[in-house]
Specification:
Length: 162
């Protein structure tokens, strides 16, 4: 329920003429001849704290917007951090897998030399080649994971992917 005292002033423009029998007759009240002007204003005098309530409401909306903005920024920094850590982890896994593959390639070379020298069977050569093949597949998967992490990092940093 809103209780308010309303003060209203109204006005306008009017043209009053005094009608006489003769156009040359003097008028007794000359202030009534010609245009008159007035102003109008309307303002509630008593609003029972509505302005204060509106100000409080606006300030609370501002605080909510600020909190939402801060949460969005924190979430964005968290996403970037998580993505960067994920990429770094996949990168280090790929590097370890490359080192492992180089070691297995050396193992295959040694097995072939031993086979050619007559000190090892061909089964040991095939076994080392199988291990190398598994390592190559694992390296391909590690590279895929690293590149996906890099794409995710670019996307989070605003790379334009949707």
């Amino acid at each position: 329920m809103r209780i308010a005292v309303l003060l209203t002033l109204k006005g306008g423009k009017s043209r009053l003429r005094r009608r006489t029998s003769s156009p040359f007759t003097q008028c007794s009240d000359c202030s009534q001849l010609g245009p008159t002007y007035a102003a109008a204003a309307s303002q509630p005098v008593f609003e029972r704290g509505a302005l204060r309530d509106n100000l409080r409401y606006a300030k609370s909306e501002e605080r909510q917007a600020l909190i939402s903005y801060q949460q969005t920024i924190q979430r964005a920094f968290g996403d970037v951090s998580d993505s960067w850590i994920g990429y770094d982890k996949h990168h280090s896994v790929r590097e370890r897998q490359e080192r492992s593959m180089k070691d297995l390639q050396e193992s295959v070379n040694v097995s072939l030399m031993r086979y050619k020298g007559g000190t090892a069977t061909y089964l040991s050569v095939l076994d080392s080649q199988r291990s190398l093949f598994v390592a190559e597949l694992t390296l391909a998967q590690a590279r895929d994971n690293e590149y996906q992490g890099l794409v995710q990092l670019f996307k989070i940093l605003g790379g334009g992917w949707k």
